[in-house]
């Protein structure tokens, strides 16, 4: 009795299951992928009488896009290289003799922003004119859009007006420096995109004005000398260097407003000219540069042979930066002859030579850079 009852209950349960229309579950139910990623949805029949037929549909019976494929048993739908058009709902419809069951999956294709600006890349504006820079941006989620100006490495945000589809910045040109590089940047959590417009100001050129940091320079022989020149004006002037009445020293290096002379010598002294040129004219600025040099001393004559009672005259001559002072001494510490006279110009005279005046004499020439020595040998015969 009990057994029959149990069998009946079981059979009716089985019958209800077998007589059911299909029930499906979707895995996953939602997916968000980046553009060009690949994603699959699986439609699983959890109950219902076999045979069950599976079918995938888009809303409004749109056909499946060409990059959407259904696997051989119909349960797996794969979207390869997802694009924005693949976004939306995918319904899996399961059909058996008892009826239909359906499951739904939703795909989101994330879109980093893309911007387009008008005018594109470049626009010319006259002084006194106005131009509107328009930025269109797409992307999902909707990006935030900003116009800014690149100004000496900084970004200056511009006031702009926003409509549904674009953001517009007005650029009023009252002076050449109102031109420059303007950038529209769109940003959402999936990425950033930007586009540049160059605003070129027509007319309004200003003559250059060149200035040097130092108008007078003193260097010591062998040093490296650097001169700096700056110029205002529009368009930005080009700076060239030259030397008055002489070519630039061969070892010079000029870069922009900087002139560098390495290992300078006395011959590099002189006047250097910075020339700033643009379409409106040119401007010159001058640097007077002196190279200080060590004295280089010689004597005339460099040896003296005389008789006792003769007179002697020896001149010490030095090249180098002025002023130069001269000092005569005797080598070995002997005293100068009582009849010796020394002038500021380095001339040593002895009116009546004695035998004891024989020996070596030293002239030391000194300037503010340093000193130099030279010798003369005096031989007095009896
Ligand atoms: C400076 O440049 C201008 C224009 O190029 C030229 O006429 C002038 O002679 C230059 N001056 C010097 C000193 O080179």
Automatic annotation (TrEMBL):
Domain (Ig-like): residue spans on this chain: 22-108, 113-200, 208-292, 295-379
Domain of life: Eukaryota
InterPro entries found in the cross-reference section: Ig-like_dom, Ig-like_dom_sf, Ig-like_fold, Ig_I-set, Ig_sub, Ig_sub2, Neural/epithelial_adhesion
Cell compartments where the protein resides: Cell membrane
Signal sequence segment: 1-19
GO CC aspect terms: plasma membrane
Record's keyword terms, sorted: Cell membrane, Disulfide bond, Glycoprotein, Immunoglobulin domain, Membrane, Repeat, Signal
PANTHER family associated with the record: BASEMENT MEMBRANE-SPECIFIC HEPARAN SULFATE PROTEOGLYCAN CORE PROTEIN (PTHR12231:SF267), CTX-RELATED TYPE I TRANSMEMBRANE PROTEIN (PTHR12231)
Name used for this protein in its record: Ig-like domain-containing protein
Organism: Pangasianodon hypophthalmus
């Amino acid at each position: 009795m009990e057994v029959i009852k149990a069998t009946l209950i079981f059979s009716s349960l089985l019958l209800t299951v077998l007589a059911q229309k299909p029930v499906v579950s979707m895995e996953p139910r939602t997916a968000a992928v980046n553009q060009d990623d690949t994603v699959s949805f699986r439609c699983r029949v959890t109950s219902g009488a076999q045979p069950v037929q599976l079918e995938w549909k888009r809303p409004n019976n749109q056909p499946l896009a060409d990059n959407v494929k259904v696997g051989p048993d119909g349960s797996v739908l794969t979207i390869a290289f997802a694009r924005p058009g693949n976004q939306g709902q995918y319904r899996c419809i399961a059909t058996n003799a008892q009826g239909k069951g359906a499951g739904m999956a939703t795909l989101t294709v994330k879109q980093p922003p893309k911007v387009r600006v008008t005018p594109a890349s470049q626009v010319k504006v006259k002084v006194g004119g106005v131009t509107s820079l328009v930025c269109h941006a797409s992307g999902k989620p909707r990006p935030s859009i900003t116009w800014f100006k690149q100004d000496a490495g900084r970004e200056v945000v511009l006031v702009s007006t926003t409509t549904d589809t674009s953001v517009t910045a007005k650029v009023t040109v009252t002076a050449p420096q109102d031109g420059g590089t303007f950038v529209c940047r769109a940003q959402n959590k999936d990425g950033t995109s930007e586009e540049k417009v160059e605003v070129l100001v027509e007319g309004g050129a200003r003559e250059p004005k060149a200035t040097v940091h130092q108008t007078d320079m003193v260097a010591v022989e062998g040093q490296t000398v650097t001169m700096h020149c700056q110029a205002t004006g529009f368009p930005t002037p080009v700076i060239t260097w030259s030397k008055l009445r002489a070519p630039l020293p061969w070892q010079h290096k000029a870069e922009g407003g900087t002139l560098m002379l390495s290992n300078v010598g006395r011959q590099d002294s002189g006047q250097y000219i910075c020339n700033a040129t643009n379409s409106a004219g040119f401007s010159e600025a001058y640097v007077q540069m002196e190279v200080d040099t060590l004295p280089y001393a010689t004597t005339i004559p460099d040896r003296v042979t005389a008789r006792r009672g003769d007179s002697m005259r020896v001149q010490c001559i030095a090249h180098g930066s002025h002023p130069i002072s001269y000092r005569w001494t005797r080598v070995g510490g002997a005293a100068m002859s009582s009849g010796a006279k020394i002038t500021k110009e380095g001339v040593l005279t002895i009116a009546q030579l004695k035998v004891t005046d024989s020996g070596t004499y030293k002239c030391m020439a000194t300037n503010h850079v340093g000193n130099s020595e030279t010798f003369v040998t005096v031989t007095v015969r009896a």
